[in-house]
């Protein structure tokens, strides 16, 4: 074993990185021999790794705490975060239920009220469940009669969920507890006798955050029973990578089961007649040829949004007993805009479309005739439109880069929209401007880039600019407000978001153009966006930073290794950095449909060509880099970031700092307490201000 220690002197301070030992490990990938000297850091539970984490955090925090603008930035972030926020209301039975945060509460509180503007009462306060605010409320699902609320809890950022049931009227919990659920919601029986959910086998002790998640099973939990008595509804041990998501139709007649495998948006559908005690689970849509998202049912007819024969998606109807494809009916055909979502209220569909990564909402009759476009408050993102088919009202949320989430109510009888809640913030919205640019990628593809800045910003190439992107898994980046980004812009920075191939902004073809053997297109798009911002006078390389999380962390890692001279600073968060071993941990195997895997001989050269860990070259001057991860991330295990940080510190040839910030009692991001988020952004922005010179 060898010991590596690196000392760098920056213009502000001298740093000595912790010693990171190397081990003699080499693997053979289809004839490619690849060394893995930091393999030991994958064991995130070992005392040795814990000591390394402590040592890295000590160096990183000493650096961050010494930054001149950190404390003033933290104080400003706290003020910008301190505004009242509401969640979308839902109404069943006697109560409206919605979340609320007074501004700086670590977790939003779930409230009930007997009217929209009536006095609210606490239903669930997650802030009382842990001293540090790291137990978060996950999903909440109310029974049809509104009397019971099933809710899930996430501990310390983990994807594992524990489900409990609360009596809405009394606020007391029943004795029911369902454990080891992950990547699953629940669906109540119409009579509230119990609910359907999916779970995995309890993990081996000590491997809760790293063990592989396979063989998901669908169960029915009857209220009052111990979980060990739950009824198995569907399992496929012959298909260990299959997963199941349950839905019960509004009329209570059918259990609809969405069947997925991996992360690729292709699915099957199973169905079970709940009115027949002897009915079996039956195949309904098979073949895994496209994505089928169940929307609603009317009698035996079920409506789905699908990209079957429609890359930008369409709405179809499939009837029980007539599910052969020749019997499918197209209700609303594919259009030039991407169909993202749909809801059915009475005889009217509300369809959510994306047009150049911005929302458009259209209303159609149940027969498929266009009625009108729903007027939106501006250019941005609209989401919500939940509720039962017989509802008389629904709610939606509207936001963009300078508008905190506003909540609107739609009277489904008249179709009229009214404002329910509009947050007040200390931001002068009129001082900012958002514009959409289009960068030309290496192969000529036009890549949208949405830029937000102060209206007085001079485009003289001198502005500190932060470019954010994701580029994968069919996920669309749409305009949304962030107090953290507001602080960055307020401090004179420019905030840009690039909609890269691999996302879902332009439908299936856009996604597939950025996956597997096409993955380099994503990096080329990001590079093109960066170069466009420079060419148009927004910034220059020394003042340009890039940021991304998860798959976006991979994006940052790949681009900083391919074009280090293009960037002034890099912020890869919870990234997939080892493209040869990602599939060996937790749910990582599911990403092989997106990336390919090192088990596939025809994928290995492509993976090696961009894997961030394997493309670091000793003797290269890399941009100032602050890697972020968390010790309880069981989505992208922190070993990815640990190994990348160690290799980056060993490869760095110049004075630019290469640090890793490892959060404790946190995970992949969801449910992170407000206090931790403020601290993290204070560190990130202070790091950028110090290094984008």
UniProtKB/TrEMBL annotation:
Keywords: Hydrolase, Protease, Serine protease. Residues 19-421 form the Peptidase S9A N-terminal domain. The keyword Cell cycle does not apply. Its EC number is 3.4.21.26. Residues 480-692 form the Peptidase S9 prolyl oligopeptidase catalytic domain. Belongs to the peptidase S9A family. This is prolyl oligopeptidase. The lineage of its organism: Bacteria, Pseudomonadati, Planctomycetota, Planctomycetia, Pirellulales.
